[in-house]
């Protein structure tokens, strides 16, 4: 990955405490997995930002390389990669997600 793309991705990640790289946006998710993530954040009442990877092919491919995670959506909390839709669902069902977000957003 070139330095320019890495810098763009890092800027996006650090600009928001909770960032969801997804297909579509929070009002119009373009895939079921992205929709699952949006619904979880909405259910928790957590403020979050999104980046539509369909709008930027360079970011769409680059974020997969950056995180070493092959699928979209991808969730970052306070700059740390949390995982994809499956991990988000797991953390939500166990109650861990609510705790992680409360801690991250309080600091």
UniProtKB/TrEMBL annotation:
This is Glutaredoxin. It comes from Synechococcus lacustris str. Tous. Residues 18-81 form the Glutaredoxin domain. The keyword Transit peptide does not apply. CDD domains: GRX_PICOT_like (cd03028). [2Fe-2S] cluster binds at residue 31. InterPro entries: Glutaredoxin, GRX_PICOT-like, Monothiol_GRX, Monothiol_GRX-rel, Thioredoxin-like_sf. Keywords: 2Fe-2S, Iron, Iron-sulfur, Metal-binding, Redox-active center. Belongs to the glutaredoxin family. Monothiol subfamily. Pfam families: Glutaredoxin. One of its GO terms (molecular function) is metal ion binding. The keyword Metal-binding applies. The gene is grxD.
